[in-house]
């Protein structure tokens, strides 16, 4: 794995086929993808965090050297990241625990009885999880965030600097993109109570369809490249009224908060412990933000993925594997082997 330099675009090689996880190469969608012969499956469980029922997806190591905590984007449904979580665990040699923490009320059941949760409340929820589950076990944390999860990870890093060893943002949503028409449309819908309710009712009606019909609609809408896990996640979570309401409400609060500039001072102070991966054509984490970070924090580790994966990398097996490989390589390079 090559050394990572500040503001340097990485070209990541495929792992050694002799990896202990028994990994073999195969071709899928024209890309080199890795598939494990004996994959350790992630476990799904519900956890009470500050009285909120929370969905977790995790693979626990027997004697972990550190704990990778994955914060999802919006929607914050952990099952979208199943392939990524399992692959990351393997690429790290099975010595690191990996846990994905879902957003409150981005859940299969309406555990919170229609309550809406803002971006700040989701940040507080993740901090409560760290205090409850990870604070006192003496194991350092590596934060990995996707999209708005990258912003959340930075905020968690501020609150628990002594606990966090490293922070990685994947396709990060750190500030509004004024040039994005998609963001402008989403922002208007999220800010309008009427439009939000209409969208939620339409989606809820779709959720009443027979599962076979719903799966067909999802496959036709998002393409055949999406994994079965991603399709199942849409059908189980995203066609629920309470979930869509919370997705749009959280988006509204995101757009208000991210109209502010990123906290450059904190990033400069922790530049050796923060890294970001950008995509080539991603309006949530545009290359303009990559350039701005290079300008404001030139020492920070930045990379650009040029393999053709999308912002929703967790929705395809190829994207999940590639990004898991990237994250594992980054961790191995940035965290001394003596501490692994």
UniProtKB/TrEMBL annotation:
Subcellular locations according to the entry: Lipid droplet
Pfam families: LIDHydrolase (PF10230)
SUPFAM superfamilies linked to this entry: alpha/beta-Hydrolases
Keywords: Hydrolase, Lipid droplet, Membrane, Transmembrane, Transmembrane helix
GO cellular-component term (any): lipid droplet
GO BP field: lipid storage
Membrane-spanning residues: 195-218
Keyword Transmembrane: yes
GO molecular function: lipase activity
Matching InterPro entries: AB_hydrolase_fold (IPR029058), LDAH (IPR019363)
Keyword Manganese among record annotations: no
Family in the record: Belongs to the AB hydrolase superfamily. LDAH family.
Protein name stated in the entry: Uncharacterized protein LOC107432244 isoform X1
Protein's organism: Ziziphus jujuba
């Amino acid at each position: 794995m090559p050394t990572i330099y500040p503001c340097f675009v990485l070209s990541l090689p495929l792992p050694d086929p002799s990896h202990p996880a028994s990994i073999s190469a195969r071709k899928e969608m024209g890309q080199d993808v890795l598939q494990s012969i004996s994959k350790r499956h992630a476990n799904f469980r519900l956890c009470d965090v500050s009285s909120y029922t929370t969905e977790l997806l995790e693979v626990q190591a027997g004697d972990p050297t550190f704990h990778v905590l994955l914060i999802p984007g919006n929607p914050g449904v952990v099952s979208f990241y199943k392939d990524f979580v399992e692959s990351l665990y393997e690429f790290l040699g099975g010595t690191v625990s990996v846990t994905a923490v879902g957003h409150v009320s981005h859940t299969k059941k309406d555990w919170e009885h229609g309550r809406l949760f803002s971006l700040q409340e989701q940040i507080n929820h993740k901090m409560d999880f760290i205090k409850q589950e990870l604070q006192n076990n003496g194991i350092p944390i590596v934060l990995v965030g996707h999209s708005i999860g990258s912003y959340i990870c930075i905020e968690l890093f501020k609150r628990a600097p002594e606990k966090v060893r490293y922070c990685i943002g994947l396709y990060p949503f750190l500030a509004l993109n004024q040039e994005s028409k998609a963001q402008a449309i989403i922002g208007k819908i999220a800010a309008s109570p009427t439009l939000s309710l209409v969208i939620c009712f339409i989606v809820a009606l779709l959720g009443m369809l027979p599962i076979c019909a719903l799966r067909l609609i999802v496959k036709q809408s998002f393409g055949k490249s999406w994994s079965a896990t991603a399709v199942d996640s849409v059908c189980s979570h995203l066609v629920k009224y309470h979930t869509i309401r919370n997705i749009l409400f959280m988006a509204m609060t995101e757009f208000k908060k991210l109209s502010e500039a990123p906290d450059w001072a904190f990033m400069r102070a922790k530049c050796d412990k923060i890294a970001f991966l950008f995509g080539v054509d991603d309006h949530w984490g545009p290359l303009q933000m990559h350039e701005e970070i290079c300008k404001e924090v030139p020492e920070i580790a930045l990379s650009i993925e040029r393999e053709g994966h999308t912002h929703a990398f967790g929705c395809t097996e190829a994207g999940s594997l590639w990004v898991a490989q990237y994250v594992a390589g980054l961790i191995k390079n940035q965290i001394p082997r003596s501490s692994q």
